[in-house]
Amino acid sequence: MFFAASLISLLLLVSPALGQANLTAAHNLTSLEGTWSSGSRQVVTGPGFANPNNRTFIYPPTAGVSYSFTDDGFFESARYRFTGNGSDPHCILGAMVWIHGTYQLLDNGSMILAPFADGYQQIQDPCAAQSNFIEQYNDTELYISWQIFQDPVDGYKLHMFQFDGTPVAPQFQVSTTPNMLPTQLLVNDTPSFVAQSLLATNSGETWTPGGITALASAIFTVALGSFLL
């Protein structure tokens, strides 16, 4: 985390944000504005994914990732992912992440997302002592490169690469109008936010509604390694 923060600081010093003026044709094939979603496009930003007022999620039927961008510098990100456990295939880690805030496109082709202070994530680990909890997530994120391609079947496709070069799952443009919650701080009590368990201690459940169905598909997804988030 320290390395990523230091790298972001360095980039901000040497490469001021100048919009898309100095970016290549691969960035301007179509506007970044709109909503993008990976895979089956079941994960989409907006009110159908997260409710930050009570810090809950609406589980989509499959894992995936979605980003929305406005043309005046705001973004929203919705991510539903699973990570396999090589030593125990039953211990699949599930994570739901929602953030929104502002973004900058640097003239070296990178992108920086700076969240407002109301992002959060839900972690589900059936093999952990605390199997289900919600916590703050407000990390600034650096994507060292991004490009838009024209898919002959599915139209425009967005490729993004994290600070270490790891690719995000390719996303297809599902709307040219961004599907987003209001582009402002929605919950301002985050300093007092405490990670909280979502499970009753005697419930015997380890997955919230929708999680069990998603878990079945996630085993196949993790095996293919198709969601590199």
Automatic annotation (TrEMBL):
User: Can you supply a Gene Ontology BP term from the record?
Assistant: 'de novo' protein folding
**What are its GO cellular component terms?**
endoplasmic reticulum membrane
Q: Where is the signal peptide?
A: 1-19
Which chain positions lie within coiled-coil regions? none
Report the transmembrane regions from the record. none
Q: Name one Pfam family in it.
A: Rot1
Query: What keywords is this UniProt entry annotated with?
Result: Signal
InterPro entries xref list: Rot1
Q: Under the GO molecular function aspect, what terms does this record hold? A: unfolded protein binding
PANTHER family for this protein? PROTEIN ROT1
**Protein name stated in the entry:** Uncharacterized protein
Instruction: Name the source organism.
Output: Antrodiella citrinella
